[in-house]
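Please, structure for the following, as tokens.
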Amino acid sequence: MAMRTFPVTDANLLLAPYVWKCVGTGASSRAEATMPGAYVKAQVRGTDSVGLLVDGTANAGCSADLMPVVDVSIDGGEFKSTALTARNGVYTLCLAEGLVAGASHRVEIFFRAASLGLNRWRASTARLRIAGLQLAAGGSLHPCQRLPGNALAFGDSITEGVCVEGLCPYYSNLLMNNARATWVPFVCSALQCEYGQLGTGGQGMVKPIEIPPLPQTWDRYDADTSRLTGGLLLPEPDYVLCCMGTNDYEEKAGQRVHLDIADAYAGWLAAVRGACPKAVIFCIAPPLGWHATEIAAAVARRKAEDHSVHFIDTAPLKDKFGVAGATQLALDGVHPSVYGNAMLGALIAAEVIKQLRRVGGGAAR
């Protein structure tokens, strides 16, 4: 069957802002996401099938059980999960068949989950790299309805969606992880925003792991490529959200010792402000409550000169999380379940909207 290809540079494809590293033009163009949560939306017509063109060369050396997982929904239907399989060349991943060709169809593709143990920051092995959409020969792309605002959200494994769907050793079953079911989409929907989601397991504000602390990564797609254009985030986000701090500790003599993150957090806020002068920034205490005092102090320091930085406390949910074992909202006491993320998202969204109204803002600018 003859097929028609639309590259990732097509103006009618809606790519999540801030998270896709786009290179090349036309048929040679590629969009690559380092962390789960990136999405693509499209409105198609005149086709009975839809395929995603995947550049499998990104995943060379990745074992079958660690291949990236994508979720796909057609016309608002149930999301279906598929793990990538090929590790060489550009291939077509079938998203839908048997569509009514005369009708218009909405396609939503989400980078659901990926491995952490494959040098995520410096190698493409566990990343999602796409080349475009493929439709039947008579198919066409049309403008996709987009939300009016833009948001950018940072976090750790909680924001990545680790163990959202069920408890298992971290990253041992990627179907237990789901970036799409975290607090981020919930809050950004309330704000009427398209969003970039940047959560990665183990990351903190100061604690070094394979992925450097947030102040060293927030402005980069990966170890080699800046996210900024002329020192700015473009388009400028309406909102920046950060839920970070749970991993900022070290073990000494069998005791967990929390690291001081106040200075690093304040420095990060200043850097973000330089890249998006008008964005409203929300600094969220992590659900366990760790470092809430330091985060609040960093925000207070910035407020002397920056009135668009706000602190959100998650204390009302703190007693429903705990590192000792399963709780009402987290199967391992730390990583929220789908229900836990809904509760966390509802709390954050309510506080965000309350603070926007207090300072005269709206649900989105």
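The chain has two domains: 3-142, 149-358. The CA atoms of residues 94 and 158 lie 30 Å apart.
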